[in-house]
Amino acid sequence: MADAPPDKDDKTPRTARGERTRRALLSAAAQEFGEKGFHEGSISGITRRAGCALGSFYTYFASKDDIFRALVNDMSGQVRDYVSPRIAAARDGVEAERIGLLSFLEFARAHKEIYRIIDEAEFVDQAAYRAHYENTAARMTVRLSKAAERGEIAPDVEEVHAWAIMGMNVFLGLRYGVWDDSRPAEEIARIANTLIERGIGRR
Amino acid sequence: MADAPPDKDDKTPRTARGERTRRALLSAAAQEFGEKGFHEGSISGITRRAGCALGSFYTYFASKDDIFRALVNDMSGQVRDYVSPRIAAARDGVEAERIGLLSFLEFARAHKEIYRIIDEAEFVDQAAYRAHYENTAARMTVRLSKAAERGEIAPDVEEVHAWAIMGMNVFLGLRYGVWDDSRPAEEIARIANTLIERGIGRR
């Protein structure tokens, strides 16, 4: 689609001000859907929270489904953009996974609505739901493979390990990020990382 | 509540025939909600699938919410009843986790609607959703602690390990059980179990 002519239905903002309005609408949608869920949430609730007119909404989004899909993709990108640069600073492949979980826990604690939004996509927009997890797992598989090539982790890592580690992170984020954040994130990340590094088999 | 007098709203079946009808309604509800989701699913759709009258429905359930809650608890119990006896036959604590994942993958492949139902509880009945995962994690924590006491796994296992392993299993079940079951369940369980046993740190 990169070479396609501009779509007359294209709602991409063309100015910095437009981009700010679109972002304000996405933030408002995160609050609205995070609190009320997709079915109870409404476009008027979103524009009220964003402090903008209904007409502005339709400048950037075609419908409630459309902004929900955009929100899922946006939150998926926000997690990636928060976690990826932190992981890039890791010493090796095992530490990368500790930092990956630690920064994901930090993100989940600061954006507790993320679970409700991404999980509800399973029912509202299955393609966006699958894309979020498949893209995350694909990035992790590449990261693990490169660490294996550098000799930092076992040579036989593959997609199964990525899905396993992603699943760990998602459930630890739910339990120790969203439901109860009383234990230090560093402690949770360290314990899980020991499992990844050495397993729990008898030493 | 164990000592409370019988509740006149108690809808527990008193006969074997009543128990069969209740079970038929739960199976029909699993199909109905699994295909249509909670919002689109209906009581009349459930009774049609179960081949029973609307009056029978209200003999056993008070509402659509009520049968949904009962279904989540029932599916949670079905997984436990499928997995637990298989785990009990394991040689040690590490093998118990391999068999736990293997039997969960088998269950998910045979009951692909389980994810849609339990995941939708996050929106329809948050208490039932939390109970499912908290009960599962509590059982795993006890299992890991006993294996540690027997010296089969690391002595410092705790709740965090249970949530980590449960998260692995849930995501591996989604990816290799529900979305794509082309790889043998034994292979997935073996790879994940190596991660649990020895980790993926450089050997």
From TrEMBL, chains A, B:
Residues 19-79 form the HTH tetR-type domain. Keywords: DNA-binding. Residues 1-20 are annotated as: Disordered. The keyword DNA-binding applies. It holds the Pfam family TetR_N. InterPro entries: Homeodomain-like_sf, HTH-type_Tx_Regulator, HTH_TetR, Tet_transcr_reg_TetR-rel_C_sf. Residues 42-61 bind DNA. The keyword DNA-binding applies. It comes from the Bacteria. SUPFAM superfamilies: Homeodomain-like, Tetracyclin repressor-like, C-terminal domain. This is TetR/AcrR family transcriptional regulator. It comes from Sphingobium olei.
